[in-house]
From TrEMBL:
Residues 211-276 form the HTH luxR-type domain. This is HTH luxR-type domain-containing protein. It comes from the Bacteria. Keywords: DNA-binding, Membrane, Transcription, Transcription regulation, Transmembrane, Transmembrane helix. The chain crosses the membrane at residues 27-47, 59-79, 85-104, 125-145, 151-177. It comes from Eggerthella sinensis. GO terms for molecular function: DNA binding.
Amino acid sequence: MLAFASWVQIAFFRVISTPALSGNRFTHYLIPFSFACAMSLAMLLLCMRMSRYMNVSLAYRWSLPLFMLSYVPIILDYSNANLRILAYAINFLGMFGVQFGCWIGACKYLRRRGGSTVDLFSRYALGEGAGIFAGSLGGLFAVKLLDAQGIMVLSFALMSLVVFVAMATGFNPNWVFHRTHPPRRRANAGPGADATPRAELEAIFLREAVALQGRFGLTERETDVAALLLAGRSRPFIRDELTVSINTVSSHVRSIFSKCGVHSQQELIDLARNDEGEQGGAQGAPA
């Protein structure tokens, strides 16, 4: 859904920002593309360098302000070919942000939940292709049927829709559309993984975390973090395991402590163990 909406915006804007009469292809296409490619690679490298302190998924989020910024040049003078070239370059930069962000997000999704790589990227490619087709078709109809003011109104409406979809699904996919899904389970390493002591311990910690989720209303990601905390893992380990920034981990830990009414990792462990013991005693008590 998010990939589809993003690529509808990208394709639509690339159509309406292409000047009818613009010198040559080199000026309008190659220069903006090369500039945006170099800038986006530099921004991605910066995000990767700062990945221990900043969530790499922010690589996607730079696209939203860039999409909105790309409208500024054509609003100033829609008939100016040079301003359209500038808008084209800004939109390319946002496009690279979407592409890098979706790739990074797909890798993180596969690491956390497993599944088929081919299936996931096939669905992404389908959403991207459908978005490009729909956006290009809408842009061509807008250019032929609407004047400059009508194109701007339609563009703002589309941009508002993209921002809403990004807010609803891009930053927390479980906020909408997946609310009734059961808590995530870690993928087993193989057919006999359940029989290994490590897998049994992970299952115990995850069960305790799910119990805390049901009692205190933890989110899906907080449940993942809680399971690792109950296993005695440190925040740097959780950062590397979940491939998020240390600030994100700290934020989740503070939220877990606040919801559970504890002040330390040991208190959280004691709380989970006491709950587990009480449930076990209740189940073993005679009727």
